[in-house]
Amino acid sequence: MTDNIIKLTRNNIQKLTPYQSARRIGGKHGTIWLNANESPISVSFKSKKQSFNRYPECQPNNLISAYAGYVDLSCQQVLVTRGADEGIELLIKAFCEPGKDAIIYCPPTYDMYRINAQIAGVKIKEIPTLKNTWQLDLLNLELNLNEVKLIYVCNPNNPTSSIILKKDLLLLLKITLGKSLVVIDEAYIEFSPKESMTCFLKDHPNLVILRTLSKAFALAGIRCGFVLAEKKIIETLNKVISPYPISTPVIDIALQSLQKDYIKLMQNRVLDSNSNRVWLVDQLNQISCVEKVFESNANYVLVKFFMYERIFQILWNKGIILRNQNEKVNLKKCIRISIGTRLESLELIKELKKFSKNNIY
């Protein structure tokens, strides 16, 4: 009987491997979580709302106004979503015909661009970034624009933490004008704010930017994100978004986080995280089991290890949970490490030094 029910599932879903989120593969195991690029510091909020019997607004005006003020855009250029993930999904829903249109994504990068397209039955064109620089392969991108409606670019990129050159992004916007939307995922942009493309929205109608409160704002648990784009794109996305995507408590907390004092606190946390990152990179570079530490521009660092499998498992067994990237394009023997507190980083370094002392490469 169960087999008969499974047969009712769409073919593409039967074949789908779901996204392996940090919680799916890390669960509640461990005492030091450095696998999800979350803020290691919690921010306390008290709900100001006490009644929940009414549905919230589909697009709460006060929250949109607050975020528009934060990014210096008009309210008509902002859509609020359930994390940046819903923005990825909505764009595919709104702009891609299943079985006809395609998206481009540039691995190694965030897998949900590809997985959302697979779920929707939309074709996928994989154009890896250049191996030695992590920059866009603009020549191959231009040669593969046929049927492509959306190009997803993560900047800073997850998991490499690299930055895409602005001149390349602007050239990509130029060669795709009238053909495709360029979707720049700026989930980690607060850690490298000068790299944001928001100031180019007014001159590039095919530019879409994704944002979130999950990372620098330390609010991964409330699932609140934003799509920034020209008015017509926002209106289109409003046609396909669910009736009540953002709950009343989320609206309440998100609004508080966008007050001037909380934004200043967020910026101070970013400075602290960036300082811890510099310290961690310096320490990693002195450890013999480390083959290479890649330049980082966000709240995580990509590291190539000798004997990476043993290192990953030993740390896991000790409750230090990292993110294995070995299966991704051009990331053999690589592990991604979120920037934790200084104490968490010290514990990680202590265990890596112990491992190096007991092993010869």
From TrEMBL:
The lineage of its organism: Bacteria, Pseudomonadati, Pseudomonadota, Gammaproteobacteria, Enterobacterales. Belongs to the class-II pyridoxal-phosphate-dependent aminotransferase family. Histidinol-phosphate aminotransferase subfamily. It comes from Buchnera aphidicola. The gene is hisC. It catalyses: L-histidinol phosphate + 2-oxoglutarate = 3-(imidazol-4-yl)-2-oxopropyl phosphate + L-glutamate. HAMAP family: HisC_aminotrans_2. It holds the Pfam family Aminotran_1_2. This is Histidinol-phosphate aminotransferase. Its EC number is 2.6.1.9. Keywords: Amino-acid biosynthesis, Aminotransferase, Histidine biosynthesis, Pyridoxal phosphate, Transferase. GO terms for biological process: L-histidine biosynthetic process. InterPro entries: Aminotrans_II_pyridoxalP_BS, Aminotransferase_I/II_large, HisP_aminotrans, PyrdxlP-dep_Trfase, PyrdxlP-dep_Trfase_major, PyrdxlP-dep_Trfase_small. GO terms for molecular function: histidinol-phosphate transaminase activity; pyridoxal phosphate binding. Homodimer.
